[in-house]
Design goal:
- One of its GO terms (molecular function) is N-acetylglucosaminylphosphatidylinositol deacetylase activity.
- It is a single chain.
- The protein has a single domain, classed as LmbE-like (Rossmann fold, 3-Layer(aba) Sandwich).
- Helices cover 51% and strands 14% of the residues.
- The chain is built from twelve helices and seven strands.
- It has helices at 2-34, 52-56, 58-64, 84-98, 121-136, 151-154, 156-171, 186-189, 192-198, 212-220, 227-235, 251-258, and strands spanning 42-47, 69-74, 102-105, 143-147, 177-181, 204-207, 241-247.
- It has a seven-stranded mixed beta sheet, sandwiched between helices.
- It starts with a helix and ends with a helix.
- Zinc ion is lined by residues 48-49, 52, 155, 158.
């Protein structure tokens, strides 16, 4: 009896990774049937620091760039350790790697990199709005992609970026929708296969079957590529799955969800 049970358990453990992988492939290639697809949209990624795009947003960038125009706005030079100039260059190279049409890097005295540096909602909103106006001369931004209210890693600069984008969105002066990258619990953050396997259809998902693009882009951020970021870009769920809450232009709904 026990022998049979152990045999079945052994087979189940051996088969599980294959089943999981097949389900992940199935999810990746059928997601478009169950969720909104976007084509010929002008999409602006708003991040706080050089490397946020590589560490957190790679799966969605790689999918959305196939049929949309992507732009990148980074609200600091990442000068917390005095490496701002180097990190600007690294970000421009990473943006080129990902195929962004343009990459704008802000160096504003009120928006300096650091957990202890408080970013006001007004300062963030002003920069976002300035860039929307600047881009409006050429085209209209249809979607802004950014952090959710918890800021993924809880970094105060990430949270401020969300709040600033939300403030511009709630003004309803510009007709863009917002994608907010869902902050995962610590367990889900490092259960990448679980995320891909279980991805439901209530969120907007973008999947990658390997961490290649996240890792490759992090290599470009050479000054930041220390051992724990190497591990993060291989094992974190954000290298494989981006799950977004979508906010269309309905301010009331947005305010309720953003609480
Ligand atoms: Zn960051």
């Amino acid at each position: 009896m026990w022998q049979t049970f152990l045999e079945i358990l052994k087979i189940a453990i051996l088969i599980a990774p294959f089943v999981s992988y097949i389900k992940a492939i199935w999810n990746k290639y059928t997601l478009h049937l169950f969720q909104r697809t976007f084509q010929k949209h002008n999409i602006l990624y708003v991040i706080a620091h050089p490397d946020d795009e590589a560490m957190f947003f790679a799966p969605s960038i790689v999918e959305l760039r196939k049929s949309n125009n992507l732009y990148l706005l980074c609200l600091s030079t990442g000068n917390a350790d005095g490496l701002g100039k180097i990190r600007e260059k690294e970000l421009q190279a990473s943006a080129a790697y990902f195929g962004f049409m343009a990459c704008y890097i802000v160096d504003d005295s009120q928006l300096q990199d650091g957990k202890e540096r408080e970013w006001s909602v007004e300062a963030v909103a002003r920069q976002v709005e300035e860039h929307l106006v600047r881009l409006q001369g050429e085209m209209e931004i249809n979607i802004i992609v950014t952090f959710d209210p918890k800021g993924i890693s809880g970094h105060p600069n990430h949270i401020a970026v969300h709040q600033g984008v939300a403030a511009v969105f709630n003004e309803e002066k510009y007709p863009f929708d917002v994608f907010c990258l869902t902050t995962l619990s610590i367990f889900r953050k490092y259960s990448a296969w679980g995320e891909i396997y279980n991805c439901g259809y209530e969120h907007q998902h973008y999947l990658a079957l390997t961490p290649y693009h996240s890792y490759r882009a992090m290599m470009i951020h050479h000054s930041q590529f220390v051992w724990y970021r190497k591990l993060f870009s291989i094992f974190s769920s954000y290298a494989y799955c981006n799950s977004f809450d979508l906010y269309t232009h309905n301010a009331e709904k947005y305010k309720q969800k953003a609480k």
